[in-house]
């Protein structure tokens, strides 16, 4: 099962690399075609709009390959879950595979809903970076997981607490991608990129999906901490970092909904929020604490 | 939290007890209470407080935090801070002066939490009545201007009677899961439709949940949390802290995987309430024992020495395990201590640390060091093997055998239920508001020159799903009434 999990993961990495290549080539081709049409006095397509000839077909294939990559990484997680008897979330290799799964899942969800493949130009590299990081860990450490240490011996909470976090991280990756695409455009938008107001909305929609999951992650973490560490809140650096992340996204939601912060200010807040998400995720490396078993001690 | 909205000025009030407006505290012409109220319900204030707390929390994450209880011991704290100098260099004292080593118990952190709680409470009080009115008594008829400027709007002219159009609109709303309220006037029919009208109350639940969690945390301070409760195997140890409980650990076992990683720590505990045995359980990490509102968690373990102390008449003064919790500075010995307050004696038991051969005490032996009074005057010291009594001063000391101790966290948290209630409300509230968004659509049906005119409008913009649902509703109404011309 471990071997099958590894093979499925490698297949996912290869598929994702290919999909990203398709997206980049399709986008660059569409931009070049658009520039030529501009010279000829006509508008041009982006990879989000069908009808741009082979570039559009390439983008469509790219999305299909993203789906394939998602299926492979899902299979990898399932095989590993069967092999371990609990969610494969006990070390950074497993977290990183799961993070890529969350990002791909969130991207595909929003891609289906809004038909904006350009979002993939940011979301897919994030997922691929996580997979590359997992590959690096797999190359430097054994890929079979040790049995759980006593603090982690709670299969239900280990599986649910981290799975819920992965959904939050995945949606925040998409929110970050949309916000970044927003920020690289001038106020009136840039041809070939999605309209700024749609990107603003996607960011918001992604956060309102992710925020309840982050809330649940923290609450489940508190439930688990009470059972394992004897207190529901111990100001452990990782839990405090997750609180900081929760506060930043909470501020974003309040600012956007009540004070009408849309556009650039909201997008910058999402940059900060995703920075906090990565800080929480990679925090094991530099702030230790009770979550330190989840580091490189695989 | 909500945006600050200035209430309309009250006028014509004459009730002496009901209207204190004229007597509000005014400083320099400003109404202090009103100013404070507007300050706390302002989203700007709320955001500033959230960012300030996030910033302080970030500092607390990055800078080492003093272990619980150490800050009160000035000497221990100074030693601990000195240990940080290689890490923080010249910043060490600056961080100390700024209170960065105890951010979460600092006055400014607590102050920010109090201010944010006040802001949350004020905003909830300010917002709840409006939400209630919106859910139970919404505005049904909108002005013609609304239908011309609403973010989402549609207008249909249909060859149907006013009643047929009304029925068709209501039917489509009902089909889409909307509740409808109809108001008929001389000029036509106004229809209000909504879905998930209780969704916005999720914000109230979520905000109040934070208050509940903070109150729970405050109430928790009335309990206790002993993180260093040590129970030598076989000995009965009082829990103290206002309880009548005592614990006897009958065994402790640790198991390891082949890789050397720990696999299991388990203590078998027997709990006594007074002299009655009330409970018995295996306690593991992740598997605490609970009795009433007191919980026992497996935390740490170590070696212990079973010691018996008798006086000249043979009376037993002490017959318990002494946990070897401390280490000598060189690390070559483990040390335990016991006190005989009636005799004003402090006795230290010292053994070679596991795996260390550089101790002057041989493996399997134990050294008794006996001191008297607060001046810690040494009475005597002797090294003995197991089972051999030795005389030090006027008492006889016996190292009975080696044993182990289990270290527990024992806690009673009277605020925990508040915290769990708050946590539940938080998840429930956040889920309610985001996964069940309130949808509101207004429609009106009027008799026009070319037929019956149906207009619809909604305030939500940039919500693709709602836009699609709105467009579908309009299309379905159009299809349901034959031969329309839409605009």
Written description of the protein model:
The complex is a heterodimer of chains A (298) and B (487). Chain A is mainly alpha-helical and 298 residues long. Chain A has one domain (2-294). Chain A has helices at 2-39, 54-84, 92-114, 120-140, 155-183, 196-229, 237-257, 264-282, 284-287. In chain A, helix 7 (237-257) packs antiparallel against helix 8 (264-282). Chain B is α+β, with helices and mostly antiparallel strands and 487 residues long. Helices cover 32% and strands 35% of the residues of chain B. Chain B has four domains: 23-130, no CATH class; 138-197 and 438-486, 2-Layer Sandwich (TATA-Binding Protein); 202-221 and 414-431; 224-412, no CATH class. Chain B has a six-stranded antiparallel sheet with strand order 4-5-21-22-3-23. In chain B, strands 6, 11, 12, 13, 19 and 20 form a six-stranded antiparallel sheet that branches. In chain B, strands 14-15-16-17-18 form a five-stranded antiparallel sheet, with no helix packed on it. In chain B, a hairpin with a 4-residue loop joins strand 21 and strand 22.
Question: Mind sketching the topology for me?
Answer:
The complex is a heterodimer of chains A (298) and B (487).
Chain A (H helix, E strand, L loop, with lengths): L1 H38 L14 H31 L7 H23 L5 H21 L14 H29 L12 H34 L7 H21 L6 H19 L1 H4 L11
Helix pairs in contact in A: 1-2, 1-4, 2-3, 3-4, 3-5, 4-5, 5-6, 5-8, 6-7, 7-8
Chain B lengths: L25 E2 L2 E2 H9 L2 H20 L11 H9 L2 H4 L2 H7 L9 H30 L7 H6 L2 E7 L3 H14 L3 E7 L2 E8 L5 H20 L3 E9 L3 E3 L6 E12 L5 E12 L2 E9 L4 E3 L2 E17 L5 E8 L2 E2 L5 E8 L4 E8 L13 E7 L4 E8 L4 E4 L2 E18 L3 H20 L3 E9 L4 E7 L5 H17 L4 E2 L1
Antiparallel strand pairs in B: 1-2, 3-22, 3-23, 4-5, 5-21, 6-20, 7-8, 8-9, 9-10, 11-12, 12-13, 12-20, 14-15, 15-16, 16-17, 17-18, 19-20, 21-22
Helix pairs in contact in B: 2-6, 6-9, 8-11, 9-10
């Amino acid at each position: 099962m471990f071997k099958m999990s590894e093979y499925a993961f490698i297949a996912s990495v290869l598929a994702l690399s290919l999909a990203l290549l398709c997206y980049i080539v399709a986008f660059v081709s569409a931009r070049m075609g658009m520039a030529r049409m501009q010279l000829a006095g006509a508008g041009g397509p982006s990879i989000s709009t069908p009808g741009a000839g082979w570039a559009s077909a390439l983008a469509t294939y790219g999305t299909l390959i993203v789906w394939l990559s998602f299926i492979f990484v899902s299979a990898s997680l399932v095989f590993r879950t069967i092999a371990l008897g609990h969610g494969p979330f006990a070390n950074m290799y497993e977290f990183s595979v799961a993070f890529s799964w969350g990002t791909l899942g969130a991207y595909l969800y929003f891609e289906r809903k809004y038909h904006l493949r350009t979002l993939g130009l940011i979301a897919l590299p994030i997922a691929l970076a996580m997979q590359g990081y997992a590959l690096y860990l797999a190359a430097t450490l054994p890929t079979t997981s040790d049995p759980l240490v006593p603090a982690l011996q709670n299969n239900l909470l280990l599986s649910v607490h981290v799975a819920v976090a992965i959904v939050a991280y995945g949606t925040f990756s998409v929110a970050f991608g949309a916000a970044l695409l927003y920020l690289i455009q001038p106020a009136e938008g840039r041809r070939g990129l999605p309209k700024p107001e749609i990107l603003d909305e996607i960011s918001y929609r992604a956060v309102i999906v992710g925020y309840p999951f982050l809330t649940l992650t923290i609450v489940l973490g508190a439930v688990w901490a009470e059972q394992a560490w004897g207190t529901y809140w111990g100001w452990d650096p990782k839990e405090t970092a997750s609180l900081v992340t929760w506060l930043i996204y909470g501020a974003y939601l309040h600012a956007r909904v009540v004070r009408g912060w849309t556009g650039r200010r909201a997008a910058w807040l999402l940059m900060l929020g995703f920075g906090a998400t990565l800080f929480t995720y990679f925090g094991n490396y530099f702030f230790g604490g009770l979550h330190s078993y989840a580091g490189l001690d695989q | 939290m909500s945006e600050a909205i200035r209430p309309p000025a009250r006028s014509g009030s004459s009730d002496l007890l009901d209207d204190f407006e004229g007597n509000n505290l005014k400083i320099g012409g400003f109404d202090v209470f009103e100013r404070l109220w507007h300050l706390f319900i302002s989203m700007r204030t709320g955001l500033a407080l959230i960012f300030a707390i996030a910033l302080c929390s970030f500092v607390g994450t990055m800078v080492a935090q003093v272990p619980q209880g150490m800050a009160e011991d000035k000497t221990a704290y100074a030693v601990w801070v000195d240990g940080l100098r290689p890490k923080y260099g010249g910043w060490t004292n600056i961080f100390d002066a700024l209170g960065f080593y105890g951010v979460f118990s600092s006055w400014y952190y607590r102050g920010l939490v109090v201010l944010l709680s006040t802001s949350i409470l004020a905003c909830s009080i300010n917002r709840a009545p409006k939400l209630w009115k919106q859910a139970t008594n919404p505005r049904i008829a909108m002005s013609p201007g609304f239908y011309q400027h609403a973010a989402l709007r549609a207008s249909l002219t249909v060859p149907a009677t006013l009643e047929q159009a009304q029925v068709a609109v209501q039917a489509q709303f009902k089909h889409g899961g909307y509740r409808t309220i109809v108001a008929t006037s001389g000029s036509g029919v106004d229809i209000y439709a909504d879905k998930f009208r209780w969704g916005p109350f999720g914000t109230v639940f979520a905000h109040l949940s934070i208050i509940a969690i903070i109150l729970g945390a405050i109430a928790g301070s009335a309990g206790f949390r002993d993180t260093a409760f040590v129970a030598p195997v076989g000995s009965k140890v009082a829990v103290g802290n206002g309880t009548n409980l005592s614990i006897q650990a009958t065994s402790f076992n640790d198991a390891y995987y082949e890789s050397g990683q720990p696999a299991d720590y388990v203590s078998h505990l027997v709990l006594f309430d007074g002299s009655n045995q009330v409970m018995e359980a295996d306690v593991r990490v992740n598997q605490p024992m609970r009795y009433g509102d007191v919980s026992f968690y497996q935390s740490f373990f170590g070696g212990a020495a079973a010691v018996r102390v008798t006086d000249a008449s043979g009376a037993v003064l002490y017959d318990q395990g002494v946990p070897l919790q401390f280490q000598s500075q060189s690390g070559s010995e483990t040390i335990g201590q016991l006190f005989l307050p009636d005799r004003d004696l402090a006795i230290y038991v010292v053994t070679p640390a596991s795996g260390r051969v550089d101790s002057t005490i041989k493996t399997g032996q134990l050294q008794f060091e006996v001191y008297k009074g607060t001046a810690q005057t040494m009475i005597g010291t002797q090294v003995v093997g197991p089972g051999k009594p030795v005389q030090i001063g006027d008492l006889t000391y016996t190292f009975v055998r080696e044993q182990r101790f289990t270290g527990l966290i024992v806690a009673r948290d009277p605020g925990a239920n508040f915290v769990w209630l708050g946590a539940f409300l938080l998840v429930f509230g956040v889920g309610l508001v985001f996964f069940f968004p309130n949808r509101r659509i207004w429609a009106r049906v009027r008799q026009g020159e070319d037929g019956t005119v149906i207009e619809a409008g909604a305030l939500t913009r940039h919500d693709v799903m709602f836009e699609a649902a709105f467009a579908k509703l309009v299309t379905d109404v159009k299809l349901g009434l034959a031969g329309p011309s839409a605009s």
